[in-house]
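Note to self: keep these together.
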Amino acid sequence: MSDETERTPLLTPKGKGKAEDDSSMSETAPLLSGSSGTPRYDGERDDPDKASFCCEICRSPQPPPSISGASLAGSHSSHTSLKEKKSSTPWASIISIVVLATLAVCIMLVAFFVPAAVEEYAKQAAVVEPTNLSLESITTNGVRARVQANFKLDGSRVQDPTSRRIGKFTTWIVRALGTEQTKVGVYLPEYNDVLLGTAVVPPLSISIVDGQTTKVDFVAELSPGDAEAYRKVANEWLDGKLDQLKVLGKADIPLKSGILPLGTHAVSEILTFEAKQIPSLPTYNISRLNFRDVPDSDGRSAVGADVAITAFNEYPISLDVPELGFEVLIPNCNSFDPYILVADATTEPLTIRPHAEVTANVSGIIRELPKDLTRVCPNSKSSPLDKFLDQYMHGEAATVYVRGRKVPDSNTPGWVGDILSEIMVPVPFPGQGFDNLIKSFSLTDVNFQLPDPMADPDEDDGNPKVSGTVQVLAGLPKEMNFDINVTNMRATADVMYQHRKLGELNLEKWQAANSTKIEDAKKKEPLLKITSRVENAPLNITDGDVLTDVMQKLLFGGKEVMLDVKAGVDIKVNTALGNLVLKDIPAEGKIPVKPLPGKAIGSVRPQVGDVKIIDTSETSLTLEALVNVTNPTPYSAFVPYVNIHIVKDGTILGSATAENLNVVRGNNTNMVVTAKWDPTTHGDAGRRIASDLISEYLSGRNVTFDVKAHRGTLPSVPIIGEALSKLNITIAAPKLDLPGDGDEEDGKKKGHFIRDATFHVLSSTATFTLVSPLTYNTIYVDWVNATAYYNHTEKVGHILYDLPFAAPPGTSETPRLPVDWSMGSVGYDAVRKAIGGALKLDASANVSVRIGNWRETVWYEGQGIGASIRL
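Structure:
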């Protein structure tokens, strides 16, 4: 035979090759090429002057499974059906092709006595067209393969005219050749001549008359060789390192012509299969996928998977595949142990027929989660399971590895498991994007805690904190039919308002959670309702302008403000396999923020009591008081520290500070507030405005002032104070709890610092009953310049007194103040007529008061003061 190698495509749609044997003769066209009237596998038509064998199967854009069986398909279990083919088809196909090629050529060559011419004629004229390859049965030692093909000699393919004439004449004389039973060995010369397999071919008889076609139909006994050979070839091909594969066929062939024996001849033939182009995987469809709880053999719970994969077999190949077993592994981060076994899978017996759909049913079981699977990798925060789930949940193709295994108590021959167990195939595992997994994300029963002023702004305590109930509705894939319970959750969320980022809500600490399966009433889909109570989650405000817009809407808009949330959620899940952590699940939702009720600011109703002066200067007062307020909002808050400015007509008159306040809904009592009154900070204008404000307040008028935030309102988060400073909030001056004040309904008017007066006509003096709002400090009156009126306009008398007197805490009476009567006036006459009785008088006064080192002159206008008239 020729020393020249014959090349045919291995797992490629196109390619040409050469043949080589032990003689000097050459073959100029590919073995198994088409006839002159048929297209070749490279898309061109055969040159009638060239001779080669033809393989119809090779013409397909996709190689037949018998050749491409080394390629195992990917998807959840599509690899299974293709692996089933690999278990028997690759070496069977190669052996069959080698047998056909070897017998066809060698019968021709050895039979003739015109070696050179007839050898060239035989090689170029022989055409073998395989029409079907099927596995009749799988035996304990191998398989019984039925090979069907058409054989003929086509002299027009021979280029040399002399060889063509001699060959036609010789074959016309011989007419037919036959063989006895033959054993063909197939070896891999590039792998130390390791045995790939053997084939026992029954006796054959073929016509060698030019143009006559012989239908070859025989059943060969195929036996696999060394399993290590399959592993090496498969791994090189899977790694993309297999450019070509040389296969050597050897046989001792006994020949005869009719009844004339021609002896036994040793024949060898080398075929080179090209692998420059790897074929695409066949199209498949996962027609059924179901995960469910199943009991393991030892009584423990496990998770089972049932998968049905459908593909179309477009090749003329049929075979019956027995039950096969596989192991499913995922990559490990340990180079010494690169794979982690996670599941066992078993296929049902499978029937494959030519040009028909094939459905592979696979059952798998996951018994436990190995420790290596959940152990965090070195120099990483993720475990192998985390990495796999991250790819899967983000719609990326994760890679699993599939390796064959022996199935206990199975009728499948052991050699099948031996071969499959030597081969590990990477399979792309299509991801399931979880972008729409979480249907809703909401936060209710919200409480706020303002930041600690002593905390570093970069610390969690330096940010406002939010507490509330997180409710998540998660969609469950219909394929997921096993028990699942969410035990913990955490999230990092961007809080948006009108597509602008307000801040970040950081729930980085695990929060306890629970879950309940419910059904979507509209879509009839299973949902998982997850509830978690979040405590003190830091809210980092990143845009003060957005916060200003939100607060304006809440305070003055009168409508609910919807904040958008875009979150990445981590959840801990308890399953039959143990605890799993699913990370960075995308979620979108809304946080409804209820507005303040109508006239909410006016309903705050601050009331001040137990006032204590704790420091004074010539121009300032520092006081401490207990304040009662009504919180009209639906929210509660804890306030470690807050400071606001008291502003009137744009001038800062002082500030108020509160610490460690727990503000609840509704009434809040005895809240300790410290205030500093220092209007001179902004010059004489501030002092005048402050004096008028105090005077109006003492006179019982409805006094209002503005409270404004500033950068120091929340020292650790100046951006919040700056944002709130753009809001103008006007409130009524708080009412003071004065001694002797009754309820609103008792008819006594609150807020009068002069409760009553007594005029002594004969001594021309008057005394006044004063009430002080201070509980611990004495107010001193340094001088008084006052006028009393009757009926609002008629003067009664005038008081001018410049001797200091004290107004201690509680109720007190002034010394007798001299009265200069307005003799002859209507007012004086009214006083005389009321001797022994009482009058309602009005008063107008300028008073200089002093508390500690602080002094101020104020005016007072009072109406309806009850005055007793005495002689």
